[in-house]
């Protein structure tokens, strides 16, 4: 039932006397005032609902603003925590969600609504004129969209687990539709994230074709149809982009993300855009923390791997220390804190850096085989030596029997996918997966930065997909996925102007696998998987040349991967030192 929304002048005020402080706010005893369902007017006359948490004494404070489609009541602990530490906090239901008016459509109104809420908060009697946006996932995306309005009251940002682009890092990746987002779309269509979601027959639905027609009972959101109808980077996506904001973004920003996050490349892309393009003030105040985490999950267990208790950190404490220095001007030494803190996989330790990637050294590992790289039992090899006249590798890609998603950067509620670090040997046992493995390393070495595959390949189809996965193989044989990517062949040259294939012709494909920071230990081996599907994380390419998400049928494709002097396919890795083979 929707509660009454008082205005700020006649608002319902709850005063909390926290004599026995809960564990999430162990500070000195302090009164917290809580204003429920405050009405916040938007420029088009719609009113949004917000809860406001204020430090006890009357006064003016910096404001932390979090805008969420998931229900503001879920942020009570957060609001009390920050009020206990001297910050006012506003938590607002986004348009059309829970207690807010209007109609909800993902991303569409977040730039204007975010800017209007920032301006409103800055004028309140309990605000000192500084507003810092905060939040993760969607609550981070709406922050980035609000920056495009260039509101002068925006004093800083704390953004977690958020992409760098709504097209290329959110709904699509490498031109392939992120089918795992279907569960998010259905949940938001139902207005809830639980309850009826468990009743939906996901294993059956995800196999339905065409993808555009997948619709659980009662689920017909227009935004899902629009996402399908805009498979290229067209005007629909351009108007919801913040990619050009960085040269004018002159505020302190704190970022955090996870190596197994669904938006893993986005956090790091945003960091590097600020570090390279933003004014000096933003660059000097920039902080980034990257852990061995999944989307909104802080470990230590992610998938089948436990990264030890110290992989989890007190992010709230880091945020407060950063806020106190850069927003309140408290001289606490935070300006000398590490600019970057990353958890190094393999080494299982945190490392501080000032720049990232930490090195500009790149090593090429070329693909080799005698033409039988299929499965982990084949003859596929990785070597720094260029290929000679070698027979190509071939496999049949059948959309009716796609390679299953087995770990990686998936959404936590993207049923029925599995997320995190998993042993890939079950996937590598398939004949439609080409497996290339290096010799064991004679000493430890670190891979830190963007991972790229340059692939020369042909297909019997007019369009198909190419997938790649970087794997760390331990001496025991455990094959842990690190990062992966996909490229829809029609987008090999442009995500704006797709081009179908000429059957049987070899093309060069550049597949972006995101980022990693991993130490390969002595005795470990690097492994690269090449295939044409990663389902249901991504929708299946039907191989017909039609838009796959609208195609009711499919055909199989014969795929060929080349590695010869004229078509030297290779894996490119950023390293901090020369590896010992």
Question: What would a concise description of this structure say?
Answer:
The chain is an alpha+beta fold. The chain has helices at residues 76-84, 110-122, 138-147, 167-171, 181-190, 202-205, 222-229, 235-238, 264-277, 280-285, 315-326, 425-428; strands at residues 12-17, 31-41, 47-55, 61-68, 88-93, 127-136, 154-160, 172-173, 176-177, 253-260, 287-294, 301-302, 305-306, 340-344, 349-353, 361-368, 381-383, 393-397, 434-437, 445-459, 465-473, 479-488, 507-520, 525-531, 557-564, 567-568, 570-575.
Walk me through the structure:
This protein is α+β, with helices and mostly antiparallel strands. It folds into two domains: 12-170 and 241-353, Rossmann fold (3-Layer(aba) Sandwich); 361-575, Galactose-binding domain-like (Jelly Rolls), CATH 2.60.120.260. It contains twelve helices and 27 strands. The strands form five sheets. It has an eleven-stranded mixed beta sheet with strand order 1-2-3-5-4-6-7-10-11-14-15. Strands 16, 17, 18, 20, 23, 25, 26 and 27 form an eight-stranded antiparallel beta sheet that branches. Strands 19-24-21-22 form a four-stranded antiparallel beta sheet, with no helix packed on it. Helix 3 links the parallel strand 6 (127-136) and strand 7. Helix 2 (110-122) crosses helix 3 (138-147). The protein is globular, with a radius of gyration of 25 Å.
